[in-house]
Amino acid sequence: MNPSTICRDRYGRRIRSLRISLTRRCNLNCLYCHREGENSGCGREMSGEMIVKIIETLKRVGIERVKFSGGEPFMREDLPEILARLPDLQDISVTTNGTLLEDVIPRLPHRRLRINVSLDTLREERYMQITGAGEGVFSSVLRGIDEACKRGFLPLKLNFVLLKGINDDEVEEMISYVQQLNERWGRGSVILQLIELLDFGGIEDLRGDMRAIEGELMARADEIRCREMHHRRKYLIDGVEVEVVRPMDNSEFCANCNRLRVTSDGRFKPCLLREDNLVEIRDMTEQGIIDAFKRAVALREPFFKG
Ligand SMILES: Nc1nc2c(ncn2[C@@H]2O[C@H](COP(=O)(O)OP(=O)(O)OP(=O)(O)O)[C@@H](O)[C@H]2O)c(=O)[nH]1
Ligand code: SF4
Ligand code: SF4
């Protein structure tokens, strides 16, 4: 099977990775939660076995990377076991709110796992306002970040969603915090990722001005790099790598979208922002998975077009 035909959509985008939502469950309730655009479906979660089978099968047709997300992926008790059973891939990563990290880290198989942790503020009160968390959760997330670094899950990324009037005065402090972490754990150990708020209805007033922030980063960066995925820019600021995720109205971002999503109940989702073109994996044989994958790839189109 030739990956450049099976994995390429009609806009020439070569699918390299799967973004798999493991659950819709979460122990937080963030102001901006989009639950990976998964608002419909049966609510049943794929078994660990199904997840591993999908990955093994699609590795054979050219998938090189896997990202696990949620809800909160560590709400799945079997995540360490799923990770241990995965085939070798170029990149395996998980995006988490970090609240369960401290406990789960010792149980994770160390297979070059990258971890992205949401941290939208360095002030506990704001953290509680943004995430709905109770007291003490914020400090456990900070301890989880330290524990992950200590055990070598690097580079670790901190995800910071820019929220107008809530945390848009904290970018500088976040850069300093990452600088301190890098002094402790080694240069380049921690990356800061600034994320533009995605609006799934009703919260556009909270979107911070990412263009302005990016303009400032550009003006003072020692180096600027461009990632293949989404053509995201990375700015090197005082030794700290700051990656900018700016999807809104950004046709360049969508033109370089190379991931296919899988919902927690086992459907391929061609685009984060669309709910009308999901493809169910009805037949869990290898051929059934590949056929559903092909149908989903054929349905892919950039959400924002130039
Ligand atoms: N519109 C859109 N937004 C995305 C997409 N991928 C990521 N994002 C946004 O970026 C946020 C953070 O993504 P992460 O889960 O940390 O993963 P990532 O940064 O995309 O992936 P890595 O850099 O490989 O770790 C998501 O919550 C989304 O808001 C995408 O394909 N489309
Ligand atoms: S931690 Fe993630 S999944 Fe949970 S509420 Fe916040 S944004 Fe949603
Ligand atoms: S097409 Fe655009 S909006 Fe849709 S998932 Fe890809 S980058 Fe995100």
Automatic annotation (TrEMBL):
Q: Name one Pfam family in it.
A: Mob_synth_C
Q: State the reactions this protein catalyses.
A: GTP + AH2 + S-adenosyl-L-methionine = (8S)-3',8-cyclo-7,8-dihydroguanosine 5'-triphosphate + 5'-deoxyadenosine + L-methionine + A + H(+)
- Cofactor remark from the record: Binds 2 [4Fe-4S] clusters. Binds 1 [4Fe-4S] cluster coordinated with 3 cysteines and an exchangeable S-adenosyl-L-methionine and 1 [4Fe-4S] cluster coordinated with 3 cysteines and the GTP-derived substrate.
InterPro entries reported for this sequence: Aldolase_TIM, Elp3/MiaA/NifB-like_rSAM, MoaA-like, MoaA_arc, MoaA_NifB_PqqE_Fe-S-bd_CS, MoaA_twitch, MoCo_biosynth_MoaA/MoaC, rSAM
Q: List residues binding [4Fe-4S] cluster 1.
A: C26, C30, C33
Supply the enzyme class, top level: lyase
Q: Which UniProt keywords apply?
A: 4Fe-4S, GTP-binding, Iron, Iron-sulfur, Lyase, Metal-binding, Molybdenum cofactor biosynthesis, Nucleotide-binding, S-adenosyl-L-methionine
Looking at the keywords, is Transmembrane present?
Answer: no
List, in alphabetical order, the Gene Ontology terms for molecular function in this entry: 4 iron, 4 sulfur cluster binding; cyclic pyranopterin monophosphate synthase activity; GTP 3',8'-cyclase activity; GTP binding; metal ion binding; S-adenosyl-L-methionine binding
Q: Name one GO biological process term.
A: Mo-molybdopterin cofactor biosynthetic process
User: Which parts of the sequence bind [4Fe-4S] cluster 2?
Assistant: C254, C257, C271
The positions annotated for binding S-adenosyl-L-methionine are: Y32, G71, S118
Tell me the protein family, please. Belongs to the radical SAM superfamily. MoaA family.
> What PANTHER family does UniProt report for this protein, alphabetically?
MOLYBDENUM COFACTOR BIOSYNTHESIS PROTEIN 1, MOLYBDOPTERIN COFACTOR SYNTHESIS PROTEIN A
Q: What does this protein do?
A: Catalyzes the cyclization of GTP to (8S)-3',8-cyclo-7,8-dihydroguanosine 5'-triphosphate.
Q: What is this protein called?
A: Probable GTP 3',8-cyclase
Q: Can you name the source organism? A: Candidatus Syntropharchaeum butanivorans
